[in-house]
Amino acid sequence: MKKLESDLSLNNSTHMPALGLGVFQSPPKETAEAVEAALRAGYRLIDTAAAYMNEKQVGEGIKRSGVNRDEIFVVTKLWISDYGSEQAKVAFDASLRRLGTDYVNLYLMHQPMPNEFARTIAAYRSMEGFLKEGRAKAIGVSNFSPAHLEKLMTETSVVPAVNQVELHPFFVQKELTAFHKKLGIITQSWSPIGGIHRYRPSDPSAVLDALSHPVTLALADKYKKTPAQVVLRWQIDHGYCAIPKSVHEGRIKENFGVFNFKLTAEEIADIDQLDNGVRGGPNPEAIDTKTFTFAINNSPEADSAARQY
Predict the structure, then answer these.
(1) Where are the alpha helices (DSSP H) in the chain?
(2) What is the pLDDT of residue 308?
(3) Is 124 a catalytic residue?
(4) For a designed S-S bond to 139, which of 101, 127, 180, 229 qualifies (C-beta 3.0 to 4.6 A apart)?
């Protein structure tokens, strides 16, 4: 991959774009179209997961785009039903097959699964093998707390390159990001604009949308940008990798228009102050194979039978 000025350096000397397209809950047909549109617009990072059930469509979108595979940073994730040494190997092979590639740039554990952490450790050790083989250019985790990271690192050899977590102006994860910085782990933000509210306690008086907050609106007016562009720039100025989701070509292009301005230190701090410490997504401490019983069929036959539209 050609290194861009905005790219982030990982702890294994590879580099990762600071902005990518996320495809969480994107329908299969729309996923392929969104990936193609994003790559044609200049994106070079696509984030998917086995549990999103659209890896095959991500691969199709990459192929349609005409962009060389070696110019694209592909991220996918191992789902908790496939934690364990041998299960992880089968699942990784299946992800590569669905994506239509012989390697991924970053392979992540989707959840820490603290109630079954022995399986988490066994899976991560298999991921260390994928890294050594070159089939994963970097490995990391998702939704891990400092305690989860410390426990993982006492049992394994490779410090995660990335931890992908919920992070937006209302949930800035200050303690976690400081811990990442200390260890050389890059923070990757899902729901980077703050659009997920499903698990947030109901409060009729709360402003749930960072894009309508007066602080964000004032900065959008100052820089002649959209509120979403301001929030994404805030992510990048912090040194994070943001992966906003969209299936609309206009929004995809708009979200990419964040590399021609920068926020001041004071403006970054102003957005930081919007933090209320409340998650919009699920608490990773509560996720295990008993509460999330969804499992993935990794057989080739399941690939051919997968829903296309």
Answers:
(1) 28-41, 55-65, 85-99, 117-133, 146-155, 174-183, 214-223, 227-237, 249-255, 265-272, 300-304
(2) 42
(3) no
(4) 127
pLDDT at position 207 is: 58
Q: How far is 232 from 210, CA to CA, in rounded Å?
A: 11
Distance, in Å, from the CA atom of 32 to the CA atom of 14, rounded to the nearest integer, reads 27
- For residue 186, which of 22, 302, 18, 39 has the smallest C-alpha distance? 18
Backbone angles phi, psi at 267, to 5 degrees: -70, -40
Which residues of the chain are under the pLDDT cut of 50? 199, 204-205, 307-309
Asked if residue 136 lies in contact with residue 106, where contact means CB atoms within 8 angstroms, the answer is yes
CB atoms within 10 A of CB 290: 9
What's the number of CA atoms in the CB half-sphere (13 Å) around residue 104? 30
Cα separation, 199 vs 196, in Å, equals: 8
Residue range of the domain that includes 51: 8-292
Q: According to the model, what pLDDT value does residue 103 have? A: 99
Residue-level pLDDT at 194? 85
Question: Which amino acid is present at 29?
Answer: K
pLDDT at 209: 82
Q: Quick one: pLDDT at residue 309?
A: 31
Residue type, 2: K
**Angstrom distance (rounded) from CA 143 to CA 289:** 16
Q: What is the CATH number of the domain that holds 95?
A: 3.20.20.100
Answer yes or no: is 69 within a domain.
yes
Length of the chain: 309
Which residue in 52, 107, 124, 240 is the catalytic one? Answer: 52
For strand 15-16 and strand 8-9, is the pairing parallel, antiparallel, or unpaired?
Answer: antiparallel
Number of domains in the chain: 1
Q: What's the pTM?
A: 0.94
Residue 132 maps to a domain: yes
Contact 155, 245 (CB under 8 A): no
> How many Cβ atoms are within 10 Å of 207's Cβ, its own excluded?
13
Q: Is residue 309 part of a domain?
A: no
